[in-house]
Write a structure and sequence with these properties.
single chain, alpha+beta, eight-stranded antiparallel β-sheet, globular
């Protein structure tokens, strides 16, 4: 399972709370003091942000979770991407003041891309002034995260009814609507829970809740609606409810063991989205959330795996890191085993027969690269602390030492696996770079160490790319912060001696206007389809045209679409094979697309289909020939339109500086999307999901929500306003300092990629001058 969210939603704080509640820690650390378990890199502790994902096994009651804490900043999206590929479930956190934000939707799309089967929302920071349980829940619908969010817990802001009348912020307790219990936390974080009565009238005579508490009238209706909404997805539960008498107390007597199976089935089928709430920093709601993770989330048996009796070992490398003492550390998820009716019995049998298990000194095969590997040691990682183990069983997440060739996304199998068991699993898609900088070695003797360091770093972080352009080394990343971290890691981890040049946005070039028509059904081979290489005339016939509006490029191909002869998408340019001519041609296509002959920029938004080829000896000549043919075709059609990366910005400022900030944005080419003070990310949705059929809680559950976005009610100048704008990244590289100056240090912003857009002709000339091509 992973914790994912927008930046500053409390993922690392919730991780600390989980580790404390599970007795792994005796005292929880703090992001502010740099003492958390999973943020152990110096840069993470210095900046107070998560930069890399960290894995830690957690024992909770009868369950063992492989917990992964992930970054929230878009610059480190590769870490979320790789974690999303191997998890069975995700807890998505929301700041209850902000609601669904831009990167919330970004990580949700990543979970969708890899088909993560189970998810749960944790509405965090219920203790903050302005927190709104109702608005946060409604934001799930308006932003189309799920049509059926199902509230499992209600917050109790205070056990003193007067605090509700005064609009005091806080959270002191929770009501578990499924288990029909009330939880209370004291100021020292100790908790106690009380079963709730099954008679509505008895709810007004509770010893642990004042009779005039405003939440009491809402308890029975909330549980009733929970069961009625759930019964819409379970005929068995519907039949149970229909047999009950029609009185207010009838639904209160249903026990949680009679509800959980229906709740779990509906969660696994993605028919509902469980919603819990709390405050991670106060450890309120953590234990309830973890109980529901165990009861509702998919186990390794619920997701696709090899279910044959003697299944060979099969695993996916989802992360690679470098350690100066241990060398290359490959994080793997084990996907193999047998499937029987009883989960516990299956694990006992697997242990008895040693099925689907990785052991030390195992000989394995990298099916992606067709390379043999040898395991030296196996580790379980408790964040930064390794524990050596003898084996990794089915479903486990662990670390393998000794692998020389394996990279993120590679499939690893038993060395003796039959050909049918060597198929490659779904790859991990690295986000494409949007910013670059030159890397200048301090001396000629530093050149090779710098290149080796960049190669090693790109292996640990596939979203980092480097290349050589006109004798200059360029490193490409996902944002300015990403490049700062890359610079620090090159110096600190790899001891590289260099200077980082001026940052530059990574532009793209599209196909020129004079492209050739497609080949007929039987390609008519012309001189444009031939390349002379190593004394051989090699034929590679390609159809090349721009993508149509209704066609979508492959992120692994940088927004291009590359098809084989049958018209099937070639999933990755890294799919290597010495025997498959189409994959050899694809490798050459990738080389040609990486640098335009006109501008040296990467090419994007092209549709390329392989139509015909000759059979040279050796066959590997097809790679060089296809690169030459495609590069000549691109040169022949002339320079195409240029594209630059745009980002969605959400800027938070006080009312008195709103005008200056808006003026600055428009002067730097930004398009204003929205001005407001509510929970919005400024992006037009095609209509949110309907509230009908969902439980929408009353406003009174969050008494301070009426003060949302107010720092000080004494004057309008302190009212917080939000600006949503779409802006070119090239104009926003120094926005942090600009905003600080314009807002007197009170402004804040976050940003998320909005893709590439074609630029105007004057802007195209500016870009060509910038890159030295005009």
């Amino acid at each position: 399972m992973a914790l994912v969210a927008h930046i500053d939603s409390g993922k690392t704080t919730l991780t600390e709370s989980i580790l404390l509640q599970s007795s792994y820690l005796s005292a929880s650390g703090s992001v502010d003091t740099g003492s958390t378990t999973t943020d152990f890199l110096p840069a993470e502790r210095e900046r107070g942000i998560t930069i890399q994902s960290a894995s830690i096994p957690v024992k909770w009651k009868n369950w063992t979770f492989n917990l992964i804490d992930t970054p929230g900043h878009a610059d480190f999206g590769m870490e979320v991407e790789s974690a999303s590929r191997v998890i069975d479930g995700a807890v998505v956190l929301i700041d209850s003041v902000e609601g669904v934000e831009a990167q919330t939707k970004g990580v949700w799309k990543q979970l969708d891309r890899y088909g993560v089967p189970t998810r749960m929302m944790f509405l965090n920071k219920q203790d903050r002034p302005g927190a709104s349980f109702k608005s946060s829940l409604r934001s799930l619908l308006t932003n189309r995260l799920h049509p059926h969010p199902m509230v499992l817990t209600l917050p109790i802001a205070s056990f003193d009814p007067q605090d509700y009348a005064h609009g005091e912020p806080g959270i002191q307790g929770l009501v578990d609507l499924v288990k029909w219990e009330l939880w209370r936390w004291d100021e020292e974080g100790r908790s106690a829970y009380y079963p709730l009565p099954t008679d509505v009238r008895a709810l007004e005579k509770l010893e642990f809740l004042p009779s005039n508490h405003p939440i009491i009238p809402h308890l029975a209706p909330a549980r009733t609606q929970l069961l009625e909404n759930l019964s819409m997805f379970s005929e068995d539960l519907m039949e149970v409810l229909l047999t009950l008498p029609s009185e207010p107390s009838s639904y209160l007597g249903i026990k949680s063991p009679d509800i959980i199976p229906h709740l779990r089935k509906s969660t696994l089928e993605d028919k509902i989205l469980p919603v819990v709430c709390g405050s991670a920093i106060k450890h309120i709601g953590t234990s309830i959330a973890m109980d529901y993770v165990g009861e509702l989330f998919a186990s390794p048996l619920d997701v696709f795996h090899d279910s044959t009796k003697n299944a060979p070992l099969r695993m996916l490398a989802w992360k690679v890191s470098w350690d100066q003492k241990r060398g290359w550390m490959t994080y793997v998820r084990i996907y193999s085993g047998i499937q029987l009716l009883n989960c516990r019995r299956e694990f006992r049998l697997m242990r008895r027969y040693h099925l689907g298990k990785l052991t030390r000194q195992s000989a394995i095969l990298n099916a992606t690269r067709n390379q043999k590997e040898k395991v030296s040691k196996l580790l379980l990682m408790y964040a930064a602390e390794p524990v050596e183990v003898d084996e990794l069983p089915f479903g486990a997440v662990g670390v393998v030492l000794g692998l020389k060739f394996t990279r993120t996304g590679d499939t690893l199998v038993s060395s003796g696996a039959p050909p049918s068991g060597r198929s490659v699993m779904q790859d991990i898609i690295p986000p494409k770079a949007v910013i670059s900088a030159s890397v200048i070695p301090n001396s000629h003797s530093d050149l090779e160490p710098v290149q080796n360091a960049l190669e090693s770093l790109s292996r640990t972080d596939p979203s980092v790319r480097y290349d050589l352009q006109e004798g200059q080394i360029l490193v490409h990343g996902l944002g300015a912060l990403h490049l700062e971290i890359v610079e620090g890691r090159l110096r600190d981890e790899f001891q590289a001696n260099f200077e980082l040049g001026k940052r530059r946005v990574s532009y793209r070039e599209a196909l020129g206007p004079s492209y050739d028509p497609a080949h007929f059904e039987k390609p008519l081979i012309t001189k444009d389809d031939k390349a002379d290489i190593a004394g051989n005339s090699v034929i590679v016939a390609l159809d090349v045209r721009p993508l149509q509006e209704d066609e979508k490029g492959n992120p692994l191909w940088d927004g291009n679409l590359v098809l084989n002869k049958a018209g099937v998408d070639i999933s990755s340019p890294d799919s290597s094979s010495t025997a498959n001519p189409e994959l050899l041609i694809a490798s050459g296509i990738a080389t040609a697309l990486s640098s335009s002959p006109h501008s040296s920029l990467p090419m994007s938004h092209l549709r390329i289909q392989i139509r015909e080829w000759s059979t040279p000896s050796p066959l590997s000549l097809l790679t060089g020939a296809s690169a030459i043919v495609l590069r000549n075709r691109i040169r022949k059609v002339g320079m195409g339109p240029l594209m630059e990366p745009y980002f969605l910005f959400k800027v938070s400022v006080n009312e008195d500086t709103l005008g200056k900030v808006v003026k600055d944005l428009t002067e730097h080419g930004a398009e204003l999307q929205d001005l407001g003070d509510g929970m919005s990310d400024g992006v037009d949705e095609v209509g949110g999901y309907a509230e009908e059929g969902n439980y929408i809680p009353p406003n009174m559950l969050s008494p301070s929500s009426s003060n949302i976005n107010l720092e000080d009610t004494s004057g309008s100048s302190k009212i917080k306003r939000f600006i949503h704008a779409l802006a070119p990244l090239s104009q926003m590289l120094d926005y942090n300092s600009r905003l600080r100056a314009l807002s007197g240090g009170h402004g804040q912003f976050d940003m998320v990629s909005a893709g590439f857009r074609v630029v105007t002709e004057p802007r195209k000339i500016e870009i060509l001058r910038e890159i030295g091509r005009a």
